[in-house]
Every structure is written in C-alpha cells, then in structure tokens.
Amino acid sequence: MLTGIIVSVLFLVGCGLVFSALLLLAERRILRYGPCAIEINDGKKTLEVDGGGTLLAALAENDIFIPSACGGRGTCAYCKVRVLEGGGTIGPVEAPYLSPAETKENVRLSCQVKVRGNMRIAIPESLFSIRRFRGHVEHKRPLTRDIVEVRIALDDPAEMPFVAGQYIQLESQPYRGRESVMRAYSVSSPPSDTRAVETVIRLVPDGICTTWVFEILREGDSVQFSGPYGEFRLSDSDRPCLFIAGGSGMAPIWSMLRDMKEKRSRRSAVYFFGALTQADLFYTEPLRQLEKELPDFRYVPALSREPPESDWSGERGMITDVLARRIPDMAEYEAYLCGSPGMIDAAIKVLQSGGIPPDRIFYDKFA
Ligand SMILES: Cc1cc2nc3c(=O)[nH]c(=O)nc-3n(C[C@H](O)[C@H](O)[C@H](O)COP(=O)(O)OP(=O)(O)OC[C@H]3O[C@@H](n4cnc5c(N)ncnc54)[C@H](O)[C@@H]3O)c2cc1C
Ligand code: FES
Q1: CB 204 near ligand 1, within 6 Å
Q2: CATH code of 148's domain
C-alpha cells in the first residue's frame, strides 16, 4: 500500500518535471520571439537580443551585469531593475520580494522577467561600469578546515578599481554533471591592490560553486568573474566603528581594515569576530599587528563551541552576547556587519537595543 503511494507520488512529480522541461523547451525552441530591442535609461543604450531568455541573461550577454547573488533562482532579490514597458505581469516568485512602493515603480526581478518582445528598462548608471574579468589563480591556501583564501591575478582587463566592501561574481566551470554558476564573493584585499582580487571562501556542503573551488580549482587555472558590485562600504563619517563578522564574513571587513591602515585612518574601531573553536580562527596575527598599527583598534574574537577545558583565555559565547556585554552603550557608533543572515539579524537586534539607529547599521548578508 505504502509502496503504491510512494510510486504514485514519484510518478506525479516526474510528470510535473517533464512537463516543466517541455514548457521551457517550447518557450525556447518553438515559440520564437525573434530579435527584441531592450532600450535602457531613455535610449542611453539599446540592445538587440534574441527573445525567450531572461532579462538578466540578455543583459549579461551584452556585458551589462546586474547583481545576482543566487544565480537566477529568484531567492536573493539582488537583481532588481525597473521595467517600464514589456515586462508582463509580476510572477509568484517575484511577488514576495517587491514592496508596494517598488511595484508602483515597476521594479522587477530581472532573473524572473522573460524577454518576449521590445522592452524599456531603467538601471542605476553605476552598473554600466561593471565588467567581466579573466584572471588566473595565483594561490589557493587553506585558512581553516573549511575556509580557503583564493587570490586571482587579473589578466584581462589587468586592473579592477573597487571600494573596500564590494564583491565580485565568480563563474564556476561545469564539473561532474553540474552546470556553471555565478556566486558572489566579497573582495578581501585592499583597493590599492588593483591587479589582483583576494577572496575568502567557505565550503558549503554540496554547494555547486564552493565544491568547485575546493575540489576542482587549482593554482594557475583560468577563472572568470564580473565586478565590482555592491554598496557595502565605510561611510565618510568619523564616528567610531563596530565591525561584526563570522566565518568568511571576515572578507570585506579585512579589506576595509587594511584600507583604513593604508589611508592612515584615525577612526576608532572594535572588531567582533565569531567562530566556533580556536581552529576556526584565521588572520589572528595580522589582526593583532593591526592593533599596533591603527591608532585605536581592538580585535575581539569570540568562540561559541570551544571546549571548556581548553587553554583559550579570550571571549566565549555568541558574538552578539559578547558585543552587548563589552559595549553596552552603542549610541555613538556606526556598525558594519557581514556573515550569515541569522547572525546579522541577531546582531541588528542587539545594535538597535544598544542605541544605534537603523541608518547607521550597514551589512552584507551572505545569503
Ligand atoms: C553579497 C554577497 C557576498 C558574499 N561573499 C561571500 C564571501 O566572501 N565568502 C563566502 O564564502 N561566501 C560569500 N557569499 C555566499 C556565496 O555567494 C554563495 O552563496 C556560497 O558560497 C554558496 O555557494 P555554492 O554555489 O557553493 O552553494 P549553492 O549551490 O548555491 O548551495 C547553497 C546551499 O543552498 C542549497 N541549495 C542549492 N540549490 C538550492 C535551491 N534551488 N533552492 C534552495 N536551496 C538550494 C544547497 O543544498 C546548499 O546547502 C556571499 C553572498 C553574497 C550575497
Ligand atoms: S538573481 Fe537572485 S533573485 Fe534574481
């Protein structure tokens, strides 16, 4: 009986998948939309593309790169553009990510909008300066059991100007039957280092791109990426800074701190870094060195799963609890957060109850 139900369910799921695949094929092959014109920013640029694909892909094929951290799955909401004409109706995948104000402004997720005819769209001018780069892996070195540092030397173009806090979108290559995907990685090197890009990448079990980075990618290999993306960056204010990160969330903060050192910044800063155990800490020595080089900088690592009997004499517990204990009055600070959505949401609550208004809390969620 149970086997019969399982077989029926599998049969129905299989039919559904085949039907979706046929619909996609029909959309691509049978329904030929022919060439479609995409007019951007009131005629600043007009592209002629083949209809049938997504707006995000059509723009990327023409070297206009819209941020897209989830690789077009409709889960990151980074790929918003204004579609003024020709976008059709808002689909069920997009709807939860669009506020009433955005809907009124014709904002859409470009990875979910199909090019089926001529379109008019509007995008921020800054996106025109994002480029595709080709480089090679200068080094790949382990930092912890599940984090590597990957340094990519740029071949063409040879330089990428960027601001500390920005990220690139790395393109993995097909392997073991898995397709090529694009994933966001924050640049960890300082902006003065324009001829290479350093990243800090954590292995996500069964993740397509990170498995490729850990198991396939070798020193000397060619890689492609686009960038720089993102608005996460230090403000011009001279308020004291709270940096809060966990795991590979270290990357943009490490870039910002090195940038502060090179620019001889006098801003006061405390960096709270969360890890599980001592084995998950990295860059400890250079961060301790930075405490001597910056006029007012403290590094506070906190371990949440360090065995009680170990020789660790630093902070223990969740990074958010350590932060609340060490800095009870945060009213004067600005905060910069990077890491998992869970850690960031928890930290935002602590920061707001410590007196920091939302407009002084900046973050990049590694979602
Ligand atoms: C702005 C930004 C900056 C980032 N910077 C960094 C960084 O500096 N370092 C870093 O390590 N990471 C960073 N990330 C995260 C990074 O972009 C990737 O999300 C991460 O590396 C996982 O990629 P992956 O291809 O290996 O995993 P994926 O293949 O995307 O899978 C991730 C997880 O989702 C599950 N999954 C797979 N497919 C689906 C699906 N269709 N629906 C739901 N779940 C699915 C998988 O099982 C896996 O558990 C950043 C993210 C953002 C948004
Ligand atoms: S690319 Fe992530 S939602 Fe569109």
Answers
A1: yes
A2: 2.40.30.10
Residue 20 C-alpha to ligand 1 middle, in angstroms? 25
- 109 CA to centre of ligand 1 in angstroms: 18
- pLDDT tens digits, one per residue of 95-127: 999 999 999 999 999 999 999 999 999 999 989
Bridge partner list, 335: 242, 361
For residue 343, the domain's CATH number is 3.40.50.80
Q: What are the residues whose beta carbons fall under 8 Å from the beta carbon of 113, sequence distance 6 or more?
A: 54, 55, 56, 83, 87, 88
Question: Per residue in 193-222, pLDDT tens?
Answer: 999 999 999 999 999 999 999 999 999 999
Residue whose CA lies nearest to ligand 1 atom number 35: 207
Q: Are residues 143 and 90 in the same domain?
A: no
Residue 73 has a pLDDT of 87
Whole-number Å distance between alpha carbons of 316 and 293: 26
**Residue 226 — left, alpha, or beta (φ > 0 → left; ψ -120 to 50 → alpha)?**
beta
Atom of ligand 1 nearest to the CA of 205: 49
For the chain, how many helices (H) and strands (E)? Answer: 8, 17
Q: Which domain holds residue 278?
A: 241-365
Ligand 2 centre from 74 Cα, in Å? 4
Residue located nearest, by CA, to atom 33 of ligand 1: 207
- Residue 178 DSSP symbol: B
Low-confidence ranges of the chain (pLDDT < 50): none
Q: What's the pLDDT at 71?
A: 78
Of the candidates 313, 314, 315, 317, which has an alpha carbon nearest to the alpha carbon of residue 305?
317
- Say which CATH number the domain at 121 has: 3.10.20.30
CA 82 → CA 32, 87, 114, 122, 131, distances in Å?
A: 25, 9, 14, 5, 21
Is residue 43 a part of any domain in this protein? yes
